[in-house]
Write a structure and sequence with these properties.
The complex is a heterodimer of chains A (about 240) and B (about 180).
Chain A (H helix, E strand, L loop, with lengths): L2 H8 L12 H12 L1 H22 L7 H14 L7 H20 L6 H15 L8 H12 L12 H7 L2 E5 L2 E10 L2 E9 L13 E5 L2 E8 L2 E7 L3 H5 L3
Antiparallel strand pairs in A: 1-2, 2-3, 3-6, 4-5, 5-6
Helix pairs in contact in A: 1-2, 2-3, 5-6
Chain B lengths: L5 H20 L2 H17 L10 H19 L21 H6 L2 H10 L2 H12 L4 H8 L3 H27 L11
Helix pairs in contact in B: 1-2, 1-3, 1-6, 2-3, 3-7, 5-8, 6-7, 6-8, 7-8
The chains are: A alpha+beta (about 240), B mainly alpha (about 180).
Chain lengths: ~240, ~180
């Protein structure tokens, strides 16, 4: 490891010793021990970092911010259902109108995009009602939450299995759609699934396509006879992390 | 986490979150809003996190997402691309210089660093966040975090040096000097 590489790594080294046992820094730290110039540089770097930290911590939040947060949280906990927020209702109404018009004048064999719009609409209007789960669904949630692998191709689900587990089922254009939610790394995802042969589009494939509608984002793909739409309101990066 | 723990959570993290928000949003009003919004999201969703040790990372991640979401709404979203590590040596800035500068001036310099570099840099300086935690919060690879920290520090030092030369740093007279 040359001096340039060691400096590159050590610029991410925290000055309070918390990273002292991190193997990523071990070689660079050893190099610093054997090279007086590098050692002196590291000491200067640590002093600079400490000075920066000290200065930034002098910046104080505005008076009353803490009290405002606490008061705001008390109010938000009393809200009966978060989806009564006008922004959510407006979004739900817009999607509902689009879906109604589209499905009324088109075939009852919907497209993958319409399936995705249905999933977005369902989440925008009913998330507060997604309550109750069977032990089988709980097991499924745990399996998906604990995996770190991308979801497409890995869910190992089937319509029959989801029905047997007692997943929440809703009807879309005369077809059965199953829904359950799970968390991974603190992010909540809602997975909607229906038989892929009940959709008209042949373009739906194993590679997910992404859709955004307001603050909701969805990824839709096909796997093992299912069309799956994964929806979250926690941003596109959160979605991209699991596909 | 228990609901009763919420005030303690606020007490522990609101100042650090506010500073992170201030470095992103660059104005106190938006920073206050972002901080409040983060705890609002926690109150409605984050309380389901049972592992309290993940609360810090969750809060910083949420604040960053809320900032990006707001930026998307206002049409100010810019693509963030990975950047190659700096080939140039970082200019040295005397630690004493930073110590003598006012905190608002240091913050001003930090806020002028390109946002791509400023985000990891602020997290690094703010509150004991490791390169691993920063990578998780910003959803970028570890190598990219290190590269951005390296280049961010270079920019920051240049900006600090410029600010110091701008006449806003008052040097103490040397021993024996007379006014």
């Amino acid at each position: 490891m040359n001096q340039h590489e060691a400096k590159f790594l050590l610029r991410a080294f925290r000055p309070d010793g918390q990273d002292a046992r991190d193997p990523v820094f071990a070689e660079a730290l050893a190099a610093a021990e054997n090279d007086p110039r590098l050692k002196a540089w590291l000491e200067r770097e640590e002093l600079f970092d400490q000075a920066m930290r000290g200065k930034l911590r002098e910046v104080q939040p505005p008076p009353g911010l803490r009290e405002a947060i606490l008061a705001g949280s008390r109010v938000s906990r009393r809200r009966p259902t978060w989806w009564k927020n006008p922004a959510w209702l407006a979004l739900a109404a817009a999607i509902a109108i689009t879906l109604t018009v589209t499905l009324r004048f088109r075939s009852v064999t919907p497209s993958a995009r319409e399936f995705t719009e249905f999933a977005l609409q369902d989440l925008a209007t009913t998330e507060g009602q997604h309550r109750g789960r069977t032990p089988d669904v709980a097991q499924l949630q745990t399996r998906l939450a604990s995996s770190s692998r991308p979801l497409p191709g890995q869910t190992q689900l089937s319509a029959d299995e989801l029905r047997r587990m007692g997943c929440r089922a809703v009807t879309f254009a005369g077809h059965e759609v199953f829904e359950f939610c799970f968390q991974r790394n603190g992010t909540t995802y809602h997975l909607y699934a229906m038989r892929s042969d009940e959709l008209s589009e042949a373009t739906l494939n194993a590679k997910a396509f992404l859709t955004s509608q307001g603050i909701l984002n969805a990824a839709t793909w096909k796997e093992a006879g299912l069309a799956i739409a994964l929806v979250t309101d926690e941003g596109m990066p959160a979605l991209q992390r699991v596909i | 986490m228990q609901e009763e723990a919420f005030p303690q959570l606020v007490e522990t993290y609101y100042a650090a979150l506010y500073r992170f928000a201030l470095s992103l949003a660059k104005n106190p009003s938006d920073a206050g809003d972002l901080t409040q919004q983060t705890f609002f999201v926690w109150a409605t969703k984050g309380a389901s996190i049972r592992d309290g040790s993940k609360a810090k990372s969750w809060l910083f991640t949420t604040l960053y997402r809320e900032f990006l979401r707001g930026r998307r709404r206002s049409g100010r979203m810019v693509a963030i691309e990975d950047l190659a590590p700096s080939e140039q040596e970082i200019p040295e800035v005397e630690t004493d210089l930073v110590s003598k500068m006012d905190a608002p001036l240091v913050l001003e310099a930090l806020q002028e660093v390109d946002s791509t570099f400023r985000e990891p840099l602020t997290l690094f300086y703010l509150q004991d966040l490791s390169y691993l935690e920063i990578a998780e919060i910003l959803s970028i690879p570890i190598g990219t975090v290190m590269s951005r920290l390296s280049r961010g520090k270079a920019q920051l030092r240049s900006l600090l040096a410029q600010k110091a030369q701008g006449g806003r740093v008052i040097e103490f007279p040397k021993q024996g000097a007379r006014s």
